[in-house]
Every structure is written in structure tokens, then in C-alpha cells.
Design brief:
It is built from 20 helices and 18 strands. By secondary structure, it is α/β, with parallel strands linked by helices. The chain folds into three domains: 133 residues, Aspartate Aminotransferase, domain 1 (Alpha-Beta Complex), CATH 3.90.1150.10; 236 residues, Aspartate Aminotransferase, domain 2 (3-Layer(aba) Sandwich); 112 residues, Oxidized Rhodanese, domain 1, CATH 3.40.250.10. The structure holds pyridoxal-5'-phosphate.
Length: 514
Amino acid sequence: MQIQQLEFLKHLIRFNRRVYLDHNATTPVSNRVRRKMGQVLRYHYGNPSSFYGIGRKSAALVKQARQYVAEAVHADPQEIYFTGCATESNNAVLKSLSDHFYPKKKKIVSTPLEHPSVMHTLAYLETQGVMVEYCPVDGQGRVLLAELEKRVDEDTFLVCCMLANNETGVIQDLKAVTKIASQQSALVLADCVQALGKIPVDLHAWGVDYASFSAHKLYGPKGIGALYVKQGSPFSPLLHGGHQESGMRAGTESLHNIVGFGAACQDVDRLLLHAKKTQALKQLLIQRLKEIKPDCAINSPETGCLPNTISVTFPGVDNAGLMAILDYHGIAVSAGSACSTGEDAPSHVLRAIGLSEQAARQTIRVSLGWHTSEGDIRYTTKVIQDYIEGRSLLVNMITPAQLNESILFDEHTFILDVRPPDDRRKHQGLPNAHEVAPLAVEKYLGQLPRDKQILVYCPGGGLSLMVSYYLKAKGFKHVINLRGGLDAWRQRRSDLYLKYAGQNVTVLQPDKVE
Ligand code: PLP
């Protein structure tokens, strides 16, 4: 009986293979980086601004890390400033330059492919009067340089163009962009976050004025970014306070993160050498996908693209279902950028390169990394093939936006709450829910209706997905998983949450065992 009671746990363990193919979202911290950071956390607690010995040692570590970052991007150390993240770097440049130039000059020219940290900041600046023009791109996402030239005029103070796109991997010709901008004395901000460690970055050769970087995209820690400001370029800090970073970014330095970033940059040459192997695996992946579904469309350009990134559209295949089955098999890929997974809108990047809304919803992004193996590619493509050829169990997904009153109060829907007890203590759940012990679902099967659709939810959407597949394997026909879980729904539908949470909840008792 004991063994039978553990059935769901065994089901979980059976799928413990992990294949991480979302390196454009973030990367695991490398062992070397972790070791260096550990040493800092253990021994180097001095404040880099303090004048005494341990403070001076910390300051020396910051200086050394700055040197490593500068070498990796071909800049001078005094042009590199540490920030909290690349989002901060992008915000700082866009806001600082708008303050500096507006209203004498009014215009920023950008591309429709930028990361939300740029897009949303530009939208904010528009509310402050700044004019923003987006330069069209071709079907592969390359900025049309002739169109750029038309848009950059004497009223333009900044051209903002990312080096490599996070969703498709397309690489822009920054040297050409800088040339066009300089004809009108406009400055250039290049978001180089996705490029560093994947392709060579040479800021001095390209002549850009500002560039942003983030350690967690190259096996460094999260929560540390860098900003390059070409010597002599205007800049005023976003944060005011102490004199850290030569007065360009106030706040006590996050020493362990800075050292981690420096250590990650020391590995850039090795990463670039490894990129050849990654490129070969990417080709294998493309080849296998084309064999599996000949009409799939590869949105990433064949040349001028990051070696690790592939965006692929499978006509007729909804990406939510595909990603769910991949997740179930321990494979992590994403639909667009990780920053927008909580949103329901299809990717603005895919729309900008001409995909229809429907095609964008049939697209996934796979981004390979240092540890990706041929076995990972073969395993992943096998799971995709089984799904596309109809050999996988099918769990439907519902997004937080779709979960409305008519579903919550539908008599043909049975709501199953598989949240852990501490989450139940913190937050009230969906109305009309039935609570079960989350890791012992097998003990309640007798009470779950086979003639209704079962809507399963947990805090984040992961455990409920496992339960959903388990129920499918047990013969339940209509099972729906709440994507993003209760946390996402509480955010998205706070109106419904406030109105109905916790109403009419039933706590189920385990089935009686004969
Ligand atoms: N720019 C690009 C192209 C990115 O891909 C990201 C992260 O996904 C960022 C900026 C933001 O970086 P951070 O996470 O350091 O704020």
C-alpha cells in the first residue's frame, strides 16, 4: 500500500532529466565564477569606499573586475561603470540623454526589436515629449540602413540599436549604424547584453557611445550589469547618493557580484571558442526540426545570427501546449523573451519581422549553452516529434487572462487545488476549489469526476502541470492547467481575486482504501 501511495511522487521522479535550452533568458553560474564570488563573500567584506586595509582590498577587487570587463568588450576601464542590471544601464542612458538634450533636440531613433527595458523606457519618454521613431527592419530583423538614414536628422540626439536580438539572434551592423548617426552628430546606445560571450564585441572599433551588458547572460551572477560610456560622452547619473563609480552610479558596490562579473568576462575567449561547437549543435537542431516538420519556419537568419539562438514556428502547433509538454519532460525553452512570459501578448519582435499573431503563438525560442550536448538535442527533438505526431498526452493550458467567471463558476468544471499548505496559509485560493495533498494526488482519484473538465492549479503552474499529466495518464479526458498558477492569476485578475478568492472551498479527504 505504501508503494501505491507514492505513485505520484514516482511519476514526478521518472521525469527528472533536465535539459536547459533557455540560455538567452539566463545562464547557470559557472563553477569558477561561483568560487570567486564565494571567496569575496567569505573574506572581503570591506566597503570599497573605506580608506583602511580591508576597504582598499575591496576597492582593488572592483578595479580588477572593471579591467576584465573592459578587456572583454574592447574598452578602457575608465569607460566601464557597474550597475544593478542592464535594464538600469539602458534606463540610465535613455533618461540621462533625454534630460541633457530635450527640448533642444527632440528625437530618438530606435528599432522595433529592442528589449522591454528599452521599449518601455522609450514609451515613458514619449509621455515626456520626446519623439521616438522606429526604423523598419527586413523579414529577418535587420535594420534597413537606408531607412535609418532617412530618419536620423539634425533633431536626433540618440540612435538606440541592440547588437543582437534576444528572441531571434539577429545581429545588427553597429558600425554602419554608428556611421549614419555620426553624420548628424547623434549618439549611439547599443544594447550588447545578448552578444557578450557569444560573438566578439569591440566597442572601440564600432565607435558606439554607450553600451549595456549583463553578467547573468554569460555564466555570471544575476543583479549586476555594466554600462559603457565613451570618454567625453554626456551622461548624468540615474541614482544620486555616494561617490561610487566616479559619481556615475551611487550605492555601495555589490562586491561579490562585481567580482563574479569580472570572472565571467575572463572566460569570454573560451566562450567564443566554444561557440563553434554550439553552432554545430544548432545546425543539428534545425536539421532535425525540418525532418520532423518540413513546413516549420526558422525565423533566425542563417548568417549574421547568434550561434546559440533559434526561433522556430510550427504551423498549426500552439506554442503553449508544446512548451507544456517540453516542461513536463524537463526541457526548458521559451516562447518569446523570459521577461514577457507573464504577458499574453504575442512577441513584439516576431510581429516586427512580419509574423502574424497566430504564427507568433506557434513559435518557440531555443537558446543553447555551454553544457548543451548532442544527446540534449536528440532528446528534445524526440519530445517535439512525439507531440507534433500526436503521440503525447494532451493537457490544455489556460492563461491567467482567460480564467474568468464563466469558467470559475461553470458546473462542468472541477477545480483542483494542488498548492502546498504554506501557500494556502498565505493566499486564499480559487473559488469552488477542491484542495488535495499536492504530492499524494493518487489518494484522491476516486473523488475526481471523469465527466467534467478538471482545472488544476498550484502557485506557479509547474507542479499543477505534473499533476495534469499524471491525471491524463490515469485516463482523465479533459484536464486543464493554469499557466503561471495562482500567482499569475492574482496579478492579472486582481479584480476577480478580491471578489471571489477563498469562496466555497472544499478540503477533500483521501479515498478510503479497502
Ligand atoms: N537587453 C537584452 C537584449 C536582454 O536580453 C536583457 C535580458 O533579458 C536585458 C536587456 C535586461 O538585462 P537585465 O536582466 O540585466 O536587466
